[in-house]
Amino acid sequence: MQIHPTAVVEDGAIIGEGTTVGPFCVIGPDVTIGKNNIIHSHVTLDGHTTIGDENEIYSYACLGKRTQDLKYEGGTPKVRIGNHNSIREYATVHAATHDGDETIIGDHVLIQAYCHVAHDCILNDYVILSSGAKLSGHVIMGKGAIISGMSGVIQFVKIGEYAFVGAYAKLTHDVLPYCIADGIPAATVTINKVGLERQGVSKADIREIHKVYKAIFKSEKTLATVMEEIKESENQFVQTMYQFLLTSEKGLARG
After folding, report:
1. Whole-prediction pTM
2. 120 an active-site residue?
C-alpha cells in the first residue's frame, strides 16, 4: 500500500493491500477500498462507499457524495463499486437516497470523463458510459449496455443488456435488450447487430432477436400480442427480451 504524504485519509477508512493513493486525494472515514487499486491524484472518495479490487480511478473523480435528491432524509445510503472498473476524470457517482439503499457499479465497467451516475442507479458488468453521459436517479443498465457521449437518461429508465444508445440522445423510455436507440427523444431504430457479433452471438440467434424487434416496432401487432407469442420461446435471447418487457414500467423508446 502506498499513500502519498499529501493525501488526506480520515480515521476509519480501510485501504487494502497493493492500493496506491495519489497526491491530494481525500478519503472519508466510512470508505472501504479493496486490493490493488490505483487512485490517481485529486480523487475524492466519501460517504459509505465500498470499492472492490483492481479498479483505477482518475484525477478529480468524486465518488460517494450525498445524493442531490431532495427526498434525502439522512441515514446511511451507500455506493458499492465492484472490481476491474475504470472511472475517468471528473466522473461523479452519488450515494443512494434512502437509508441502507445503494448506488451500484458492477465489474469491468468503464465510466469515461465527465459522466454522472445519480442516486440509486445500477450499472451491471461491462457497461460503458462514454464521455459526458448523464444518468438520472434509479436508472438500470444491463450487462454490456453502452451509452454514447453527451447523452442524457431520465429517472427510472431501464436499458437492456447489450443495448446501445447513440450520442447526444435524450432517453425518456426503456431500451429493449440488444437494440439501438438514438435521437431526441430517442427511438429504437434497429438491433445492435455489430455488438452481438462481437459477443459471439450466432447468426441464428441474431435472426431470432431481429424477428422480435420487427414484431414490436415494425408490425401492427400490439405489444401484448407479441409478448404472448414469445413467452414460451426456448431461445435464451428472446426470453431475456420477454422478461425485460414484463418489468418495463416506462414503456419502450419509440420516439
Report:
1. 0.97
2. yes
